[in-house]
Specification:
Layout: E1 3-11, H1 14-32, E2 36-41, H2 46-52, H3 58-66, E3 69-74, H4 88-97, E4 102-108, H5 121-124, E5 128-134, E6 142-150, E7 153-159, H6 164-179, E8 184-189, H7 195-208, E9 215-220, H8 221-230, E10 237-240, H9 242-253, E11 265-267, E12 283-285, H10 304-316, H11 321-336, H12 353-362
Parallel strand pairs: 1-2, 1-3, 3-12, 5-10, 8-9, 8-10
Antiparallel strand pairs: 4-5, 4-11, 6-7, 11-12
Helix pairs in contact: 1-10, 1-12, 6-7, 8-9, 10-11, 11-12
The structure holds 3-isopropylmalic acid (IPM) and magnesium ion (MG).
The site of 3-isopropylmalic acid has 6 residues, from helix 4.
Length: 366
């Protein structure tokens, strides 16, 4: 029996509904497998701007460090578009504060769901990719980063900077993940133009020497974005800079029917689960979708991205592989039985967030 101390940060919009759904599933799994879950929760994002005047408080960072793992919803919304500090600063800040440099975003086309994707069936059938996004460096955090007034008009700058160490540790996570799968790592860069990309490619080649069993190839991000749609089954694990990963992961989500289906784990490295010991790797687990203000509070949101994120949490932060698989299997059964929220219904009958969640809970034991 394990005690799982989880901090829940629902955030804004549908973040609240989907984290609630994931908690229901976690509770049901804990009951079945006789674990104990203890939740703490806190306000973050736009909700924290409203209540405390800031999207991310120090107390929240401390609570996240105390917890074994964090379940995160989503932050943002039109209400705060003109706020001096936007809600999104919360997720950017907490990733950095916890050192979560490795963002794992799996994109898997579930058999039978091909019709829900706008891409032709024969292109996407069987696609199973992990996008590994570097999460605490690059264009998001590089300095200088500012806007200013000059005599000839306004200027703005962001900086894409990477150290050898930052590149090395993320590509090694990529090699490790690939090793446990089909042993193919694609490193994505813009080495025909960018210096930081030229360094990235060099460091990836150097690290490759320690992983001779994994095939490494390099793709330029622009043509890679095309291949991701025209030939997605050629990819296994793909590793890339922060911004490239932000963009390509949304693009890849189209293969898997809907952004609402996809989980993510943001980790401070890959856990090594020694027998009988719980890994101590910090992680934030969140669906990759946003707050969807247009459907928030209406019970229409797809909870699967958040529920599969909870499965990821069990696997990566707690080493509970069987429990993680039971959630993934229940999701697959619910989908195979035809349960569909609006985003994946392709014009057919839809169920609410609650019905989908209950449908998954009901199938946990099967
Ligand atoms: C994501 C999101 C965030 C990001 C936003 C909300 C800051 O788009 O997790 O992909 O850009 O990283
Ligand atoms: Mg994004």
């Amino acid at each position: 029996m394990a005690t799982l101390n989880i901090l829940v940060l629902p955030g804004d919009g549908i973040g609240v509904e989907v984290t609630g759904a994931a908690q229901q599933v976690l509770d049901a799994v804990a009951k079945r497998f006789k674990h104990k879950v203890r939740y703490a929760s806190d306000i973050i994002g736009g909700a924290a701007i409203d209540q405390f005047g800031t999207p991310l408080r120090n107390e929240t960072i401390k609570a996240a460090k105390r917890a074994d793992a964090v379940l995160f919803g989503a932050v943002g919304g039109p209400k705060w578009d003109n706020a001096p500090v936007r809600p999104e600063a919360a997720i950017i800040g907490i990733r950095k504060a916890l050192g979560l440099y490795a963002n794992i975003r799996p994109v898997k086309v579930i058999a039978g769901m091909e019709d829900s994707s706008p891409v032709k069936n024969d292109r996407i059938r069987g696609a199973d990719i992990i996008i590994l996004r570097e999460l605490t460096g690059g264009l998001y955090y590089g300095k200088p980063k500012r806007r200013w007034q000059t005599a000839s008009g306004r200027k703005g700058v962001d900086t894409m900077v990477y150290s050898e160490k930052e590149i090395d540790r993320i590509v090694r996570v990529g090699f490790e993940l690939a090793r446990g799968r089909r042993k193919k790592l694609t490193s994505v860069d813009k080495a025909n133009v960018l210096e930081s990309s030229r360094l990235w490619r060099q460091v990836a080649e150097e690290a490759h020497k320690d992983y001779p069993d994994v095939a490494l190839d390099h793709q330029l991000v622009d043509s890679c974005s095309m291949l991701l749609i025209s030939n997605p089954t050629r990819f296994d694990v793909m590793v890339m800079e922060n911004t490239f990963g932000d963009i390509l992961s949304d693009e890849a989500s189209v293969l898997a029917a809907s952004l609402g289906m996809l989980p993510s784990a943001s980790l401070a490295g890959l856990p090594r689960h020694e027998k009988g010991k719980r890994a101590k790797v910090r992680g934030i687990y969140e669906p990759i979708h946003g707050t969807a203000p247009d459907i928030a509070g209406q019970g229409k949101a797809n909870p699967i991205g958040a529920i599969l994120s909870a499965a990821f949490m069990l696997r990566y932060s707690f080493g509970l592989e069987r429990e993680a698989r039971s959630i993934e299997a229940a999701v697959n059964r619910a989908l195979a039985d035809g349960l569909r929220t609006g985003d994946i219904a392709a014009g057919g009958a839809t169920v609410s967030t609650d019905r989908m969640t209950q449908g998954i809970v009901d199938r946990l034991g099967e």
